[in-house]
Amino acid sequence: MLQANYAFPRHYKVLVTCWRRARFSSNVISSAANLSPTFLGRARALTVEHAELSDQLAKNYDVNIAKKVGELSPTITALSEWEQASSVSDLSTTGRHLSLQFEKSLLELQQLLGDPATDTELRSIAAEELAGSSQSLEETTIRLKSSLLPVHEFAHLPCLIEVRPGVGGSEAGLFAGDLLRMYQAFCKRHGLRASILKLDETEGAGNESQVQEAILEIENDGAYGTLRCEAGVHRVQRVPATESKGRTHTSAVSVLVLPSFPSTGADEMTQNSFNDPASDYYIDPTEVRTDVMRARGAGGQHVNTTDSAVRLTHIPTNTVVAIQDSRSQHKNREKAWHILRSRIAQARREAREEEMARLRASIIGVSGTGRGDKIRTYNWSQQRVTDHRSGITLHHLDDVLEGGSSLDEVMLSVRSWMTEKELQALDADEVSGEAGKTS
């Protein structure tokens, strides 16, 4: 299975840097080290559950129990490291602040640094110890909080990447093709199975193909968790080949990343069942209108005589999917249902996330970024790629567009940014919960 964070140690270092830049003040005892009783209690409850499941596993091996034990292990390890870093010896302690022992140690080090009588060597030792202790606590706190973040419910699934040109005319269509090839190269370099489900192109100036719509499926498990950070509007700034005066044009391409649900084996899945009305990707067949028609475009006599094209319309949401890639109406119908389920499930997921974002915005004072926001800029003249979420800027444009390691670095920084935002939301939930208890 492809892991959502396939380079976790590096991802973790980036996350620590982002977190410090966003939250930490100049105070030595960081607010990030302050764990609420609820937060700490949750981690310790999982420790008890881990111990109980481990005992059961020792007596009688069970695949599901073993899986659950493995899922809990990062939290158990992180809690142990946090307790060691903050010198917490009493496991029943559930207070918000650091232990008195740790605070006393930091205070003593600060006093040594502030005392003019402290000799140079001792001052150097104190400064090094103070920085090391604070950094260790910050890092273990972030690791503990990260381990308690709920895993995205679709992170384990394959995914679909839909690429469509936006503003910018023919240049946007050309750049859509660049992005499609970038994701194909990325998949090839990482050994991911990628196939094109749909590709609509037109011929532009200079016989260059312009992408009107492309849907790329990545079949590996966990692909959605890795690539969902790519969803949004990608902006390109370059001089088009047809520009005679050398002026830079700005165009945009929309990239949508959807979880891809299996078309078979639904009976083997529990919450993720096509037949379960409670699941995100359940669609009532009576709410879908199916139209079949003759395929349009190049293709000779077959196109004009065979009703192979399929168009599905989800009536409640007016979501339309049209497929004519195959000569088989049956195959086109399967593809159309596959894409329709993915779009409806993603829309339902986004509706829930938007509602939660509205609730959290009143606490953290910021609004979430929507799909329409520009997430990344590709500047040809400067050979620059800037992601506007994580703030990373690289001057390795060619390597990014070739799906190279520079693209890995950009995506890694964005996943770290996403985790940072989730941590802030988790903190906001804790603050809201405690406020409710005291009111």
Describe what is shown at a glance.
The protein is α+β, with helices and mostly antiparallel strands.
Keywords:
globular, 11 strands, three-stranded antiparallel sheet, 439 residues, eight-stranded mixed sheet, 11 helices, 48% helix, alpha+beta, disordered N terminus
Anisotropy-based shape: globular
> How much helix is in the residues?
40-55%
Strand content: 15-25%
Low-confidence stretches: 1-13, 15-33, 88-104, 264-271, 362-372
The side-by-side strand order for the widest beta sheet comes to: 2-3-1-5-4-9-10-11
Give the N-terminus to C-terminus distance in angstroms: 46 Å
Largest sheet: 8 strands, mixed
**Alpha-beta classification:** alpha+beta
Radius of gyration: 26 Å
Number of separate strands: 11
How large is the count of helical segments?
A: 11
Order of helices and strands: HHHHHEHEEHEEEHEEHEEEHH
Describe this structure in words.
It contains eleven helices and eleven strands. Helix content is 48%, strand content 17%. Residues 1-13, 15-33, 88-104, 264-271 and 362-372 have low confidence and may be disordered. By secondary structure, the protein is an alpha+beta fold. The chain is globular. The strands form two sheets. It has an eight-stranded mixed sheet with strand order 2-3-1-5-4-9-10-11. Strands 6-7-8 form a three-stranded antiparallel sheet, covered by helices on one side.
Layout of helices and strands, plus pairs?
Elements: H1 8-23, H2 37-59, H3 63-85, H4 100-114, H5 120-147, E1 159-165, H6 170-189, E2 194-203, E3 209-218, H7 223-227, E4 232-238, E5 249-259, E6 288-293, H8 301-305, E7 309-314, E8 319-323, H9 329-364, E9 374-379, E10 384-387, E11 393-394, H10 397-401, H11 405-438
Parallel strand pairs: 4-9
Antiparallel strand pairs: 1-3, 1-5, 2-3, 4-5, 6-7, 7-8, 9-10, 10-11
Helix pairs in contact: 1-5, 1-11, 2-3, 3-5, 4-5
